[in-house]
Design brief:
By secondary structure, this protein is α+β, with helices and mostly antiparallel strands. It contains four helices and four strands. A hairpin with an 8-residue loop joins strand 2 and strand 3.
Length: 159
């Protein structure tokens, strides 16, 4: 990877950590899950408002937010994840997570340049993979959970 590309990727992570997107509790959420990484103390709650498709297709994420605390990798990853999965179906989120997981575990990024590739360097630090994927796991669990009238929390622990 070129030095310029590495610098760009570092800037993406720093930007999402300093100015997280979609941070805070989503008052209209109808699905919520909480992720906890006890090995480093990272915590992340993901709030979704899932809406049925107008044409009878699969449900989609209409709104998403996250809240929590932890290292720069976990918080930046959760922030970036919220920008990537909004408007997606469960299958689309799963496919995007699969791509992201491949990036953080192998360091190989897809042919096209994307913000997700900013996390390619995580593969060199295996203990940080859980940090990077925490918010993603919480989002997937929230999407799988039963809709609720008022937000509740589903626990997800990464061991």
């Amino acid at each position: 990877m070129s030095a310029d590309l590495t610098e760009l990727y570092q800037q993406v992570i720093l930007d999402h950590n300093r100015r997280p997107r979609n941070r805070g509790k989503l008052p209209t959420a109808n699905r919520v899950a909480h992720g906890d990484n006890p090995t480093c103390g990272d915590q992340c709650s993901v709030y979704l408002r899932v809406a049925p498709a107008a044409t009878g297709g699969p449900d989609r994420i209409a709104e998403i937010s996250f809240d929590g605390s932890g290292c720069a990798i976990s918080q930046a990853s959760a922030s970036l994840m919220t920008t990537q999965v909004k408007g997606k179906t469960a299958d689309e989120v799963a496919a995007l997570y699969k791509e992201f997981h491949e990036i953080v575990t192998t360091g190989k990024s897809p042919e096209e340049i994307s913000d997700l590739a900013a996390f390619a360097g995580v593969h060199a630090f295996p203990a940080r993979i859980k940090c990077a994927t925490l918010g993603w796991h919480a989002a997937i669990e929230a999407f799988k959970s039963d809709p609720v009238a008022a937000p509740t929390t589903t626990e997800t622990h990464l061991d």
